[in-house]
Amino acid sequence: MEKKKFMLGYLNKNKKAFMQMPFAWMFGLIVGAIILFLAIYAAIQLGGVGKTEQDVITSKDLGILLNPLEIGFETGKTTLLSLPKETRIYSLCQKPDEYEEFGRQKFRISQQSFGKWSDTYLDVSFFNKYVFAPVPAEGKNFMIFSKPFEFPFKVADLTFIIPLEKSYCFVNAPENITDEIHNLKLTENIKNVINKDLCGERETVYFSPSCAHSKPGYNTTVCLKEKTIYNSSGEDSGFEGEALMYARIFSEPILYECQVNRIMARVNTLIKLYEEKANFIAGRGCYSSLALDNFRLEIGAVIAEGSFMIKQTIPSMQNIKKNNEGANCQLW
Description:
It is a single chain. By secondary structure, the chain is an alpha/beta fold. Among the domains are: 67 residues, no CATH class; 69 residues. 43% of the residues lie in helices and 25% in strands. It has 6 helices and 13 strands. Strands 1, 2, 3, 4, 5, 6 and 7 form a 7-stranded mixed sheet that branches. A hairpin with a 3-residue loop joins strand 6 and strand 7. Helix 5 packs antiparallel against helix 6. 29% of the residues are buried.
């Protein structure tokens, strides 16, 4: 009997212990799950911050890497930019305003990781860069080159970014263009042909003597006589010189128009500086008569109305350049 009571007491005691163990085990499991969840959440958040930080660093590094291309001895050179991950480079533009006299060149980088693109809303900006590229320019390898823009004086170096995987087909391009493509070692990206049938799947650019001789069916048409470029969607842009021509071919119309606005704002400021220089040297008996006032008004029309007005300024620009080259006291 005593033995039976002992066994019942032992079983009841162990039954209580058994009933308590699941509660402690469940409590520990819940606490552990919460801790694990918080750890994973923190890792995800920190990972997101890390990606954002890396994207911003890459954007800033890209701007710094472009600096050598803006120095005279690097002009006309082509540089291969290789990145460790699939990358989307967004070349963005902010127009001049009352706070930013020359506007801003902005970069935004998105990189691919585990099949997903990082989502970055932070830009890195520069006031003295003018970069033209598809938006976005996507890939791991990019060809970068620059050309000076003179109007009629040196204004800025324009930089072009082309994904190595993106290919163009120039149809009926002038000899100076085909020679430059060869010298810049861009033949992998740009194929020069005389017949569109040889282009394959490449993006086509047709060089027409004039808009009257243009042909349908091309992605982009360059009217050499009218200094006009238009694409298959009917958007027209004006240009002068090879630098702006490349700028329009290798970038979207919205980016091009914004950058032209920034460039012309810079031209406008340089005109004012040369006017002050002309007044200064006139006080020393050296006179310059270049009609810069009228030219400044024409540049103002481009800023107000867009690149299509550039062709209206070309006669004045050429006349100023000629007069400056023949003057005893040159302003530049």
